[in-house]
Automatic annotation (TrEMBL), chains A, B:
Name of protein: Transcriptional repressor
Gene Ontology biological process: negative regulation of DNA-templated transcription; regulation of secondary metabolite biosynthetic process
InterPro entries for the chain: FUR, Fur_C, WH-like_DNA-bd_sf, WH_DNA-bd_sf
Residues bound to Zn(2+): 87, 90, 127, 130
Record has Lipid metabolism as a keyword: no
Keywords annotated in UniProt: DNA-binding, Metal-binding, Repressor, Transcription, Transcription regulation, Zinc
The family this protein is said to belong to: Belongs to the Fur family.
Entry's Gene Ontology molecular function annotations: DNA-binding transcription factor activity; transcription cis-regulatory region binding; zinc ion binding
Required cofactor(s): Zn(2+)
Taxonomy, superkingdom: Bacteria
DNA sequence: TTGCAGATGTTATGTTATTACATCAATTGC
DNA sequence: GCAATTGATGTAATAACATAACATCTGCAA
């Protein structure tokens, strides 16, 4: 899937996420966009919905936050399952893909006749700098 | 770690989760326990906090819900990372452990010098019955 | 130029989780 | 016995996250 031209609100939200050092909550994004005319959470959530669909933004379920995909110019749907390591101290996020992990998980669900739609892998802990 | 004797509130919350067919939100648990004197969310959240610590309950991050561990009489901390398959139609949850997945994920984070604390793997989709 | 689809704006509300503070019960050390 | 401590509990208020419902606008195609 190729990413369509973003609308005004989608671009604003995406730019905020790209410039951010780490993941942001929807309400943090809202606050950053008040000067650009954003007034309500729905403006953010609607933009995020599309950006997630296009694969240019990820949602981090365990911290209710959103982050720009780490693979610029390349949508993430082609990478299989995405795993994240999230530093609980500094908020930094590392993104990673492992086909063997995908294979094991998908093999298991197939055995259960379970039909997977969306998979979340999130590892919370401390990054090298913060663990020191 | 062995599970200590549960307190009154912890037992009430755990019993509700054990008898449930699938995962429950904290507020659903609260409603089910109003007859037993529960009045406020904190009574539920505090009990859940301990039950999670003891490993007899899991939190499903992607659906903000809680489920009793599928391994009765046996705390889950000994199983390594737990993965869940969650049916988005009927709510049924399957729990599973795979050492190869653990190994791959932990190998990667070690390479990044990341110190993992808590890992979430959740696969949302449709179970066999619901996919038919 | 009308009708439609998609994007946007706005208000209100629903859902999930925590802070702050008071009280109670069991245990320990004196 | 009786303070002192610790962990559990009760309660009110509030913070944080997310969606419903409805109105409006804009570009485009029939």
């Amino acid at each position: 899937m190729t990413t369509p031209q973003l609308t005004k609100n989608q671009s604003l939200v995406f730019d905020v996420l790209e410039k951010a050092e780490g993941p942001l909550s929807a309400y943090t994004i809202l606050d950053k966009l008040r000067d650009h005319g954003f007034r309500a959470p729905l403006q953010v959530y609607r933009a995020l919905e599309k950006l997630l669909e296009y694969g240019v933004v990820h949602r981090l379920e365990s911290i209710n936050s959103f982050v720009a995909c780490a693979h610029p110019g390349d949508d993430c749907h082609s990478h299989g399952i995405v795993a994240f390591a999230i530093c609980e101290s500094c908020g930094q996020v590392m993104e990673f893909h492992d086909h063997e992990v995908d294979h094991r998980l998908m093999g298991w669900v197939r055995g259960q006749k379970f039909k997977p739609e969306k998979t979340t892998i999130e590892i919370r802990g401390l990054c090298e700098a913060c663990a020191a």
